[in-house]
Amino acid sequence: MRAFTYERASDPVQAARIVAERPGAKFLAGGTNLLDLMKLEIETPTHLVDVQDLRLDRIEETREGGLRIGALVTNTDLAADRRVRSDYQVLTKAIVAGASGQLRNKATTAGNLMQRTRCPYFYDPNMPCNKRRPGSGCAAIGGYSRQLAVIGSSDQCIATHPSDMAVAMRVLDAAVETVRSDGAARSIPIAEFHRLPGETPQVETVLQPGELITAVTLPKPIGGRHFYEKVRDRASYAFAVVSVAAVIGRDGRGRVALGGVAHKPWRVEAAEAALPQGAKAVTASLLAGARPTTHNAFKLPLAERTLAAVISQARHS
Protein backbone atom coordinates (compact mmCIF):
# COMPACT_ATOMS: atom_id res chain seq x y z
CA MET A 1 0.00 0.00 0.00
CA ARG A 2 1.34 3.41 -0.92
CA ALA A 3 1.61 6.22 1.62
CA PHE A 4 -1.30 8.66 1.93
CA THR A 5 -2.50 11.44 4.18
CA TYR A 6 -5.80 11.37 6.06
CA GLU A 7 -8.37 13.73 7.55
CA ARG A 8 -11.92 13.52 8.88
CA ALA A 9 -14.48 15.84 7.31
CA SER A 10 -17.15 17.52 9.43
CA ASP A 11 -19.43 18.82 6.67
CA PRO A 12 -20.53 17.32 3.31
CA VAL A 13 -19.68 20.45 1.29
CA GLN A 14 -16.29 20.69 3.01
CA ALA A 15 -15.61 17.04 2.13
CA ALA A 16 -16.62 17.61 -1.49
CA ARG A 17 -14.45 20.72 -1.72
CA ILE A 18 -11.35 18.97 -0.37
CA VAL A 19 -11.65 16.08 -2.84
CA ALA A 20 -12.45 18.40 -5.75
CA GLU A 21 -9.50 20.68 -5.09
CA ARG A 22 -6.88 18.09 -4.17
CA PRO A 23 -5.80 15.77 -7.02
CA GLY A 24 -5.52 12.19 -5.89
CA ALA A 25 -7.94 12.60 -2.97
CA LYS A 26 -10.78 10.13 -2.37
CA PHE A 27 -13.67 9.74 0.05
CA LEU A 28 -13.45 7.00 2.68
CA ALA A 29 -16.53 5.54 4.39
CA GLY A 30 -16.85 1.81 5.16
CA GLY A 31 -13.73 1.09 3.10
CA THR A 32 -14.71 -2.51 2.38
CA ASN A 33 -13.73 -2.25 -1.30
CA LEU A 34 -11.38 0.75 -1.37
CA LEU A 35 -8.93 -0.58 1.22
CA ASP A 36 -8.63 -3.92 -0.59
CA LEU A 37 -7.85 -2.05 -3.81
CA MET A 38 -5.29 0.13 -2.01
CA LYS A 39 -3.49 -2.94 -0.68
CA LEU A 40 -3.16 -4.20 -4.25
CA GLU A 41 -2.14 -0.69 -5.40
CA ILE A 42 -4.98 -0.68 -7.90
CA GLU A 43 -6.29 2.40 -6.11
CA THR A 44 -3.51 4.77 -5.04
CA PRO A 45 -5.13 7.83 -3.40
CA THR A 46 -2.70 10.39 -2.03
CA HIS A 47 -5.22 11.72 0.50
CA LEU A 48 -8.27 10.13 2.16
CA VAL A 49 -11.19 12.24 3.35
CA ASP A 50 -13.07 10.23 5.97
CA VAL A 51 -16.80 11.06 5.78
CA GLN A 52 -17.99 8.87 8.65
CA ASP A 53 -18.72 11.87 10.90
CA LEU A 54 -21.17 13.51 8.48
CA ARG A 55 -24.33 12.13 10.14
CA LEU A 56 -25.64 10.68 6.90
CA ASP A 57 -26.74 7.51 8.66
CA ARG A 58 -30.51 7.94 9.01
CA ILE A 59 -33.48 6.49 7.11
CA GLU A 60 -36.32 9.00 6.94
CA GLU A 61 -39.75 9.08 5.36
CA THR A 62 -40.19 11.59 2.54
CA ARG A 63 -43.13 13.92 1.93
CA GLU A 64 -43.93 11.89 -1.18
CA GLY A 65 -44.41 8.73 0.87
CA GLY A 66 -41.06 7.14 0.10
CA LEU A 67 -37.82 6.76 2.03
CA ARG A 68 -34.63 8.80 2.10
CA ILE A 69 -31.67 6.59 2.95
CA GLY A 70 -28.55 8.36 4.19
CA ALA A 71 -25.37 7.57 2.28
CA LEU A 72 -23.72 6.14 5.41
CA VAL A 73 -26.55 3.79 6.40
CA THR A 74 -24.92 0.39 6.61
CA ASN A 75 -26.16 -2.46 4.47
CA THR A 76 -27.12 -4.33 7.66
CA ASP A 77 -29.24 -1.47 9.00
CA LEU A 78 -30.87 -0.87 5.61
CA ALA A 79 -31.80 -4.50 5.11
CA ALA A 80 -33.22 -4.71 8.65
CA ASP A 81 -35.24 -1.48 8.58
CA ARG A 82 -38.89 -2.22 9.31
CA ARG A 83 -40.17 -0.03 6.47
CA VAL A 84 -37.76 -1.54 3.94
CA ARG A 85 -38.67 -5.08 4.98
CA SER A 86 -42.36 -4.26 4.69
CA ASP A 87 -42.58 -2.11 1.55
CA TYR A 88 -39.31 -2.66 -0.36
CA GLN A 89 -38.66 -6.34 0.24
CA VAL A 90 -36.66 -6.72 -2.97
CA LEU A 91 -34.06 -4.42 -1.43
CA THR A 92 -33.75 -6.39 1.79
CA LYS A 93 -33.51 -9.66 -0.15
CA ALA A 94 -30.82 -8.30 -2.47
CA ILE A 95 -28.68 -6.92 0.35
CA VAL A 96 -28.89 -10.11 2.40
CA ALA A 97 -27.85 -12.07 -0.69
CA GLY A 98 -24.63 -10.07 -0.93
CA ALA A 99 -21.31 -10.29 0.93
CA SER A 100 -20.94 -11.59 4.50
CA GLY A 101 -22.57 -10.37 7.69
CA GLN A 102 -19.31 -8.75 8.77
CA LEU A 103 -18.99 -6.85 5.49
CA ARG A 104 -22.62 -5.73 5.57
CA ASN A 105 -21.99 -4.27 9.03
CA LYS A 106 -19.36 -1.94 7.56
CA ALA A 107 -20.45 -1.43 3.95
CA THR A 108 -22.51 1.70 3.32
CA THR A 109 -25.32 2.53 0.92
CA ALA A 110 -23.17 4.93 -1.12
CA GLY A 111 -20.16 2.65 -1.05
CA ASN A 112 -22.23 -0.24 -2.36
CA LEU A 113 -23.19 1.83 -5.41
CA MET A 114 -19.56 2.86 -5.95
CA GLN A 115 -17.86 -0.54 -5.63
CA ARG A 116 -15.60 -1.55 -8.49
CA THR A 117 -15.92 -4.52 -10.81
CA ARG A 118 -14.71 -7.98 -9.73
CA CYS A 119 -13.26 -8.73 -13.17
CA PRO A 120 -10.15 -10.85 -12.37
CA TYR A 121 -8.06 -8.95 -14.91
CA PHE A 122 -8.88 -5.67 -13.16
CA TYR A 123 -7.47 -7.13 -9.93
CA ASP A 124 -4.26 -8.39 -11.57
CA PRO A 125 -1.80 -5.48 -12.01
CA ASN A 126 0.27 -7.64 -14.37
CA MET A 127 -2.53 -7.81 -16.94
CA PRO A 128 -3.71 -5.04 -19.27
CA CYS A 129 -7.00 -3.44 -18.22
CA ASN A 130 -8.55 -0.35 -19.75
CA LYS A 131 -10.54 0.25 -16.58
CA ARG A 132 -7.47 0.19 -14.33
CA ARG A 133 -5.07 1.80 -16.81
CA PRO A 134 -6.82 3.47 -19.77
CA GLY A 135 -5.38 2.56 -23.15
CA SER A 136 -3.55 -0.54 -21.94
CA GLY A 137 -6.00 -3.01 -23.48
CA CYS A 138 -8.46 -5.57 -22.11
CA ALA A 139 -7.13 -9.00 -21.19
CA ALA A 140 -10.66 -10.22 -20.53
CA ILE A 141 -11.51 -9.94 -24.22
CA GLY A 142 -10.11 -13.17 -25.59
CA GLY A 143 -9.31 -14.33 -22.04
CA TYR A 144 -11.35 -16.34 -19.58
CA SER A 145 -14.63 -14.47 -19.30
CA ARG A 146 -17.12 -16.74 -17.58
CA GLN A 147 -18.15 -14.10 -14.99
CA LEU A 148 -18.19 -11.14 -17.35
CA ALA A 149 -20.72 -9.11 -19.31
CA VAL A 150 -22.96 -10.43 -22.06
CA ILE A 151 -24.67 -7.14 -22.91
CA GLY A 152 -23.85 -3.44 -22.84
CA SER A 153 -20.13 -4.17 -23.19
CA SER A 154 -17.69 -2.50 -25.59
CA ASP A 155 -14.48 -3.30 -27.42
CA GLN A 156 -12.69 -1.67 -24.47
CA CYS A 157 -14.28 -3.51 -21.54
CA ILE A 158 -16.57 -6.45 -20.72
CA ALA A 159 -16.60 -6.03 -16.93
CA THR A 160 -19.75 -6.37 -14.83
CA HIS A 161 -21.03 -4.32 -11.91
CA PRO A 162 -20.89 -6.47 -8.76
CA SER A 163 -23.63 -4.93 -6.60
CA ASP A 164 -26.77 -6.80 -5.60
CA MET A 165 -28.24 -3.77 -3.84
CA ALA A 166 -27.98 -1.61 -6.97
CA VAL A 167 -30.04 -4.10 -8.99
CA ALA A 168 -32.86 -3.82 -6.47
CA MET A 169 -32.50 -0.02 -6.40
CA ARG A 170 -32.83 -0.01 -10.19
CA VAL A 171 -36.07 -1.96 -10.16
CA LEU A 172 -37.42 0.41 -7.49
CA ASP A 173 -36.53 3.54 -9.53
CA ALA A 174 -34.33 4.98 -6.79
CA ALA A 175 -32.58 8.34 -7.13
CA VAL A 176 -29.10 9.26 -5.92
CA GLU A 177 -28.72 12.58 -4.08
CA THR A 178 -25.37 14.36 -4.21
CA VAL A 179 -23.64 17.57 -3.22
CA ARG A 180 -20.85 19.26 -5.14
CA SER A 181 -17.94 21.36 -3.94
CA ASP A 182 -19.86 24.61 -4.59
CA GLY A 183 -22.72 23.41 -2.37
CA ALA A 184 -25.07 22.62 -5.26
CA ALA A 185 -27.17 19.50 -4.79
CA ARG A 186 -28.72 17.29 -7.44
CA SER A 187 -30.80 14.13 -7.71
CA ILE A 188 -29.71 11.54 -10.29
CA PRO A 189 -32.10 8.76 -11.37
CA ILE A 190 -30.30 5.49 -10.74
CA ALA A 191 -30.99 4.52 -14.35
CA GLU A 192 -28.54 7.29 -15.31
CA PHE A 193 -26.08 6.94 -12.44
CA HIS A 194 -23.88 4.08 -13.71
CA ARG A 195 -22.35 4.35 -17.18
CA LEU A 196 -21.77 1.71 -19.82
CA PRO A 197 -18.04 1.25 -20.62
CA GLY A 198 -17.97 2.63 -24.17
CA GLU A 199 -14.56 4.11 -24.95
CA THR A 200 -13.95 5.21 -21.34
CA PRO A 201 -14.53 2.21 -19.04
CA GLN A 202 -12.55 3.89 -16.26
CA VAL A 203 -15.42 6.41 -15.90
CA GLU A 204 -18.05 4.35 -14.13
CA THR A 205 -20.61 6.92 -12.94
CA VAL A 206 -21.86 10.38 -13.87
CA LEU A 207 -20.42 11.89 -10.69
CA GLN A 208 -18.20 14.93 -11.19
CA PRO A 209 -14.82 15.24 -9.42
CA GLY A 210 -15.43 15.71 -5.72
CA GLU A 211 -19.19 15.15 -5.95
CA LEU A 212 -20.32 13.35 -2.80
CA ILE A 213 -23.31 11.02 -2.49
CA THR A 214 -25.43 12.13 0.46
CA ALA A 215 -28.50 9.87 0.18
CA VAL A 216 -30.57 7.55 -1.95
CA THR A 217 -34.31 8.13 -2.18
CA LEU A 218 -36.97 5.54 -2.91
CA PRO A 219 -40.36 6.52 -4.37
CA LYS A 220 -43.47 5.52 -2.47
CA PRO A 221 -44.08 1.76 -2.31
CA ILE A 222 -45.37 0.15 -5.51
CA GLY A 223 -46.90 -2.92 -3.91
CA GLY A 224 -46.66 -6.28 -5.64
CA ARG A 225 -44.63 -9.30 -4.64
CA HIS A 226 -40.90 -8.75 -4.38
CA PHE A 227 -38.21 -11.19 -5.47
CA TYR A 228 -34.42 -11.30 -5.65
CA GLU A 229 -33.08 -14.53 -7.09
CA LYS A 230 -29.30 -14.82 -7.20
CA VAL A 231 -27.40 -17.57 -9.02
CA ARG A 232 -23.82 -17.90 -7.79
CA ASP A 233 -21.03 -20.43 -7.70
CA ARG A 234 -21.35 -21.19 -3.98
CA ALA A 235 -24.01 -20.73 -1.35
CA SER A 236 -22.60 -17.62 0.32
CA TYR A 237 -20.10 -14.83 -0.14
CA ALA A 238 -19.99 -14.99 -3.92
CA PHE A 239 -20.90 -12.45 -6.55
CA ALA A 240 -23.80 -13.10 -8.87
CA VAL A 241 -23.32 -15.07 -12.05
CA VAL A 242 -26.84 -13.89 -12.86
CA SER A 243 -29.39 -12.26 -10.59
CA VAL A 244 -33.00 -11.19 -11.07
CA ALA A 245 -34.71 -8.43 -9.09
CA ALA A 246 -38.44 -8.29 -9.74
CA VAL A 247 -41.64 -6.75 -8.43
CA ILE A 248 -44.68 -8.53 -9.86
CA GLY A 249 -48.36 -7.74 -9.32
CA ARG A 250 -51.21 -10.21 -9.10
CA ASP A 251 -52.09 -9.48 -12.73
CA GLY A 252 -48.66 -10.75 -13.78
CA ARG A 253 -47.34 -7.31 -14.70
CA GLY A 254 -44.34 -5.74 -13.05
CA ARG A 255 -40.70 -4.75 -13.22
CA VAL A 256 -37.50 -6.72 -13.81
CA ALA A 257 -33.78 -5.91 -13.58
CA LEU A 258 -30.81 -8.21 -14.05
CA GLY A 259 -27.45 -8.30 -12.25
CA GLY A 260 -24.23 -10.02 -13.29
CA VAL A 261 -24.78 -9.47 -17.00
CA ALA A 262 -23.63 -5.91 -17.70
CA HIS A 263 -21.49 -2.97 -16.61
CA LYS A 264 -24.52 -1.64 -14.69
CA PRO A 265 -27.77 -3.03 -13.31
CA TRP A 266 -29.60 -4.04 -16.47
CA ARG A 267 -33.21 -3.03 -16.93
CA VAL A 268 -35.14 -2.34 -20.15
CA GLU A 269 -38.57 -1.00 -19.24
CA ALA A 270 -40.04 -1.81 -22.65
CA ALA A 271 -39.29 -5.50 -22.10
CA GLU A 272 -41.49 -5.59 -19.00
CA ALA A 273 -44.68 -5.39 -21.06
CA ALA A 274 -44.01 -9.03 -21.99
CA LEU A 275 -44.01 -10.27 -18.38
CA PRO A 276 -47.50 -11.84 -18.60
CA GLN A 277 -46.25 -13.85 -21.60
CA GLY A 278 -43.41 -15.40 -19.59
CA ALA A 279 -39.67 -15.31 -19.16
CA LYS A 280 -38.74 -16.22 -22.72
CA ALA A 281 -40.58 -13.23 -24.16
CA VAL A 282 -39.11 -10.85 -21.56
CA THR A 283 -35.50 -11.95 -21.92
CA ALA A 284 -35.74 -11.96 -25.72
CA SER A 285 -36.33 -8.22 -25.48
CA LEU A 286 -34.29 -7.54 -22.34
CA LEU A 287 -31.16 -9.17 -23.76
CA ALA A 288 -31.59 -8.23 -27.42
CA GLY A 289 -28.22 -7.28 -28.88
CA ALA A 290 -26.26 -9.35 -26.37
CA ARG A 291 -22.66 -10.13 -27.29
CA PRO A 292 -21.67 -13.10 -25.09
CA THR A 293 -18.33 -14.87 -25.28
CA THR A 294 -17.88 -18.61 -25.67
CA HIS A 295 -17.30 -18.77 -21.89
CA ASN A 296 -20.39 -16.90 -20.76
CA ALA A 297 -23.02 -17.56 -23.44
CA PHE A 298 -24.68 -19.79 -20.84
CA LYS A 299 -25.79 -16.62 -19.03
CA LEU A 300 -28.50 -15.99 -21.63
CA PRO A 301 -30.51 -19.17 -20.98
CA LEU A 302 -29.60 -18.92 -17.28
CA ALA A 303 -31.16 -15.46 -17.07
CA GLU A 304 -34.30 -16.75 -18.79
CA ARG A 305 -34.58 -19.73 -16.44
CA THR A 306 -33.93 -17.62 -13.34
CA LEU A 307 -36.64 -15.19 -14.38
CA ALA A 308 -38.94 -18.14 -15.14
CA ALA A 309 -38.40 -19.38 -11.59
CA VAL A 310 -39.30 -15.94 -10.24
CA ILE A 311 -42.45 -15.73 -12.36
CA SER A 312 -43.47 -19.20 -11.20
CA GLN A 313 -43.03 -18.15 -7.56
CA ALA A 314 -45.14 -15.06 -8.22
CA ARG A 315 -47.95 -17.13 -9.72
CA HIS A 316 -48.03 -19.64 -6.90
CA SER A 317 -47.36 -17.45 -3.86
What does this structure look like?
There is one protein chain. The protein is an alpha+beta fold. The protein has a 5-stranded antiparallel beta sheet with strand order 4-5-8-6-7. The protein has helices spanning 12-21, 34-39, 75-80, 82-87, 89-96, 101-106, 109-114, 165-171, 190-193, 279-286, 299-316, and strands spanning 5-8, 25-28, 47-50, 59-61, 67-70, 175-179, 185-189, 212-218, 225-231, 242-248, 254-259. Among the domains are: 5-53, Uridine Diphospho-n-acetylenolpyruvylglucosamine Reductase, domain 2 (2-Layer Sandwich), CATH 3.30.43.10; 225-316, Enolase-like, domain 1. The model has no long low-confidence stretch (mean pLDDT 97). The protein starts with a strand and ends with a helix. The protein is 27% helix and 18% strand. The protein contains 11 helices and 11 strands.
